[in-house]
Amino acid sequence: MATNQNVIMLDEHIPLDPVLREGDVVRLVNMEHYCEANGELEDFLEDASGIVTKVHLVFPPNHEYAPGQAAAVIVQVPTDDGWETFGPIDLSNIVRSVRESKLLRLKD
Question: Which domains does the chain possess?
Answer without folding.
Answer: 21-106 (2.30.30)
